[in-house]
């Protein structure tokens, strides 16, 4: 529950950075929300599925973010 509150605050801070980081933090919020609901026994199957899908999406968006923010600027320089 503490991690969920912390990531919600960090999501508000990520609004002013870039879109990739904001999407990652929103997905992390969904991940911790799903894990919290699973821990408290609220809709265990659905909340576990929410956590699983959001964790997969975090990995995909993070990989995209590395390519976008680090790899592409180095390729475009002449």
Protein described:
The structure is a single chain. The chain is mainly α. It has one domain. 86% of the residues lie in helices and 0% in strands. The chain has helices at 2-14, 19-39, 44-76. α2 runs antiparallel to α3 (44-76). The protein is elongated, with a radius of gyration of 15 Å.
Q: What overall form do the CA principal axes indicate?
A: elongated
The N- to C-terminal Cα distance equals 48 Å
Indicate the low-confidence ranges by residue numbers: none
Structural class: mainly alpha
- Report the sheet-strand fraction: under 5%
**What portion of residues is helical?**
over 70%
Described by strand count, sense and barrel closure, the largest sheet is: none
Rounded to the nearest angstrom, the radius of gyration is 15 Å
Counting DSSP H or I runs of 4 or more residues, the number of helices is 3
Q: What is the count of structural domains?
A: 1
Q: What is the average per-residue confidence, as pLDDT, rounded to a whole number?
A: 86
The count of DSSP E runs of length 2 or more, i.e. the number of strands, is 0
Order of helices and strands: HHH
């Amino acid at each position: 529950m503490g991690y969920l509150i912390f990531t919600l605050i960090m999501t508000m801070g990520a609004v002013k950075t870039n879109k990739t980081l904001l999407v990652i933090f929103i997905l992390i919020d969904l991940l911790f929300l799903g894990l919290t609901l699973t821990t408290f026994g609220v809709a265990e199957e659905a909340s576990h599925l929410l956590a699983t899908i959001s964790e997969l999406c975090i990995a995909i968006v993070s990989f995209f973010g590395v390519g976008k923010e680090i790899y592409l600027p180095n390729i475009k320089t002449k």
